[in-house]
Structures are given as C-alpha cells and as structure tokens.
Design goal:
Layout: E1 2-9, H1 11-15, H2 19-28, E2 32-39, H3 43-49, H4 59-66, E3 71-79, H5 81-89, H6 102-106, E4 115-117, H7 121-131
Antiparallel strand pairs: 1-3, 1-4, 2-3
Bound molecules: adenosine-3',5'-cyclic-monophosphate.
Length: 140
C-alpha cells in the first residue's frame, strides 16, 4: 500500500552537508518527498517528539543532540514507505547497520545517527502531524 513516513535528517548529517545525498537515496528508492522544511528544534519541540523515550537513560543526550543544530524534517510517500525507509536507514546503531545503508555510510554513533524514520504507520501519522499541517503536504 502507498504509505507516508516521517523522516528527519539529523544535525550531524546537516553539518556534514549530505542532505542532498540522503535525499537522492530516498528518490532513487522510489520514495517521493511530499513535504520538507529545515528547522532548529528547541528543547520543548524535540522533547515532545521523543516523549516515548522520556524515562530512558539516553533522553537528555538525545534532546541535547537534536537541538544542537538545524534538522530537515520531511514526509516521504511511496509503496510500503515506512519499511522501505527503515531499510534505507539501516540499524539505529551505525556499528550494526548493513553496508550501503544511510547510517553505515554517514553516521558516527547511536546518538549522531544521521536520520530518524517512523517505526510504524501509526507512529508515522502521529509524527507527521507533529511537524506538518495538512496543507504543507503536497502529494503527487
Ligand atoms: P531515533 O530513531 O531518532 O529514535 C530515538 C533515538 O535515540 C535513536 O534514533 C538514537 O539516535 C537515540 N538513542 C541513543 N541511545 C539509544 C539506545 N540505547 N537505544 C535506542 N536509541 C538510542
């Protein structure tokens, strides 16, 4: 089925100037970028986004990292988009990410891991509406 997923190009990848290379991977895989903006998150916006991780030991570092520089938030649309994007990203820990994945190629650590992608269609719906109004999404 055609799905949408929320993608975030994280501060480490923006700082490395690989926004275009990452977008090319989405496009080559047949995912359409149907919404996109660059934003500098504050503690409230980043903490709210990762609210499910609030009690985890890495939460503070995660929010600190995600607010350390601009990010690119985007909506990807395509067949099986949630899983397709997770395959492109590779494992959360870049040390465990398969060769040729975004995280294997561009990420340095489990915190600075280049990209975020929704883990289910339910998360995707919630995460997309957290960042985008309906009229900001441009289906093709
Ligand atoms: P992301 O997919 O954005 O969702 C939560 C983030 O927390 C994750 O990517 C990692 O960058 C970060 N993180 C840091 N430590 C851990 C951990 N032990 N397990 C999962 N995620 C972690």
């Amino acid at each position: 089925a055609v799905e949408r997923t929320l993608s975030i190009i994280k501060p480490d990848a923006v700082a490395k100037n690989v926004i275009g290379e990452i977008n090319a991977r989405f496009e080559k895989a047949g995912l359409n970028i149907v919404a996109m903006k660059m934003v500098k998150l504050d503690d409230e916006k980043a903490g709210g986004f990762y609210a499910e991780h609030k009690e985890r030991p890495f939460f503070k570092d995660l929010v600190e990292f995600m607010t350390s520089g601009p990010v690119v938030v985007q909506v990807l649309e395509g067949e099986n988009a949630v899983m397709a994007n997770r395959d492109l990203m590779g494992a959360t820990n870049p040390q465990e990410a398969a060769a040729g994945t975004i995280r294997a190629d561009f990420a340095n650590s489990i915190d600075a891991n280049a990209v975020h992608g929704s883990d289910s269609t339910e998360s995707a719906a919630r995460e997309i509406s957290y960042f985008f109004a309906d009229e900001e999404i441009c289906p093709r």
